[in-house]
């Protein structure tokens, strides 16, 4: 460490479990102690902001960008995990969380697909092949693939929740029915998804597939499943939670809610949980560290 004034230490013991975070701005290291997926114990994670390189970028649909990033983080990436990407514009302050959409076969590159929402993603959309990019990852718990063994699964994505479904579809074994919802006929990632399962489309304006949402596509096509994996906007996840309860099946939902630090320090992303955390004795979990994937029955959404 070159400059001791760059060291920031957070001790948070408020709700989602005691965390000790040490952010070292010059070394860009983040140490976080956080409960593991099952919330049954503490696991120490060290996350590092690191340089990566943009390999390619194209506009896949209006305001939707498809970027490949060369990074050794690809070696450890799991479906449902995400990266934090740092805008160069320092006035934006916080890194932006974006899901891992695909991992290249040689595990040396990651794909992200994102919608331009504001300043951060607007800046990312201007990057070209060869540009350096600061990222941190891989973050979050990811989808529990082993739960699908011997089962027929729904893999569901809505809007910007579609991208993580691709790597999930690649890695999940068994019968996969991929049900994805879009605003209109710009059905980005459709051809990629079709390689890994039967794809059912819903669009809000009816320009492709079922008119309506992913639940309408399930009903219209008479689909059934024993387990659900899903990512998308909150109303979609609430409908999936209700559907799973009604059909007595498990649903694993990824909550892509607003985040700040992304590593468990700020408590800006807590969700209410059914169970009390064994460590902190509160009914809260941080989406960025305990999630973003939760069994639907575990969280109040
Ligand atoms: C775990 C996780 C994974 C994500 N994966 C993806 C992905 O794969 N592709 C993708 O396009 N986006 C994804 N997002 C959302 C993405 O992080 C935001 O769109 C992005 O941070 C917006 O940054 P910005 O600077 O462009 O916009 P800002 O200027 O920060 O915000 C612009 C507008 O977008 C809204 N916004 C910001 N964050 C979110 C959010 N999380 N959900 C809904 N609205 C938001 C703001 O309220 C504001 O109205 C993910 C979010 C999380 C938490
Ligand atoms: S605790 Fe800071 S974003 Fe989750």
The protein's oligomeric status is single chain
Number of strands: 20
Radius of gyration in whole Å, from Cα? 19 Å
Principal-axes shape call: globular
CATH topology of the largest domain: Elongation Factor Tu (Ef-tu), domain 3
CATH class of the largest domain, please?
Mainly Beta
Give a quick summary of the entry.
This protein has 301 residues and is mostly beta strands. The chain contains five helices and 20 strands.
Topology:
Layout: E1 7-12, E2 19-24, E3 29-35, E4 42-61, E5 64-70, E6 82-86, E7 96-99, E8 102-103, E9 109-115, H1 119-124, E10 132-139, E11 152-158, H2 163-171, E12 175-182, H3 190-193, E13 198-203, E14 210-211, H4 214-220, E15 227-231, H5 234-246, E16 250-254, E17 270-273, E18 284-286, E19 293-295, E20 299-300
Parallel strand pairs: 11-12, 11-15, 12-13, 13-14, 15-16
Antiparallel strand pairs: 1-2, 2-3, 3-4, 4-5, 4-10, 5-9, 6-7, 6-10, 8-9, 16-19, 17-18, 17-20
This protein binds flavin-adenine dinucleotide (FAD) and FE2/S2 (inorganic) cluster.
Could you describe the 3D structure shown?
With 301 residues, this protein is mainly beta. The protein folds into two domains: 136 residues, Elongation Factor Tu (Ef-tu), domain 3, CATH 2.40.30; 112 residues, Rossmann fold, CATH 3.40.50.80. Helix content is 13%, strand content 39%. It contains five helices and 20 strands. Strands 1, 2, 3, 4, 5, 6, 7, 8, 9 and 10 form a ten-stranded antiparallel β-sheet that branches. The protein has a seven-stranded mixed β-sheet with strand order 14-13-12-11-15-16-19, with helices on both faces. A three-stranded antiparallel β-sheet has the order 18-17-20, with no helix packed on it. The protein binds flavin-adenine dinucleotide (FAD) and FE2/S2 (inorganic) cluster (FES). The site of flavin-adenine dinucleotide has 21 residues, from strand 7, strand 9 and helix 1.
């Amino acid at each position: 460490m070159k400059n001791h004034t760059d060291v920031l230490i957070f001790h948070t013991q408020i709700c989602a479990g005691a965390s000790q975070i040490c952010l070292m701005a010059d070394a860009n290291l983040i140490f976080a102690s956080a409960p593991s997926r099952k919330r049954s114990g503490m696991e120490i994670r060290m996350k590092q902001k690191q340089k990566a390189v943009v390999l390619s970028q194209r506009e896949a649909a209006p305001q939707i960008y498809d970027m490949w990033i060369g990074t050794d983080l690809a070696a450890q990436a799991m479906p449902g995990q995400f990266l934090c990407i740092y805008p160069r514009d320092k006035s934006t302050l916080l890194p932006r969380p974006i899901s891992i959409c695909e991992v290249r076969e040689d595990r040396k590159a990651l794909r992200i697909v994102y919608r331009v929402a504001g300043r951060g993603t607007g800046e990312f959309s201007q990057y070209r092949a060869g540009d350096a990019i600061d990222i941190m990852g891989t973050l979050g718990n990811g989808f529990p693939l082993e739960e699908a063994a011997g089962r027929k699964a729904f893999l569901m994505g809505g809007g910007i929740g579609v991208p993580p479904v691709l790597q999930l579809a690649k890695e999940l074994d068994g019968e996969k029915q991929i049900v994805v919802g879009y605003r209109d006929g710009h059905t980005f990632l459709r051809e990629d998804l079709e390689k890994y399962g039967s794809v059912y489309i819903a669009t809000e304006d009816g320009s492709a597939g079922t008119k309506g949402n992913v639940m309408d596509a399930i009903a219209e096509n008479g689909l059934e499943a024993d387990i659900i994996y899903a990512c998308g906007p909150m109303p979609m996840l609430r409908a999936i939670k209700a559907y799973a309860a009604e059909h007595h099946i498990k649903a694993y939902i990824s909550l892509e809610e607003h985040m700040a630090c992304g590593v468990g320090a700020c408590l800006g992303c807590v969700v209410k949980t059914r169970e009390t955390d064994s460590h902190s004795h509160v009914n809260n979990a941080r989406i960025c560290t305990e999630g973003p994937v939760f069994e639907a029955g575990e969280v109040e959404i």
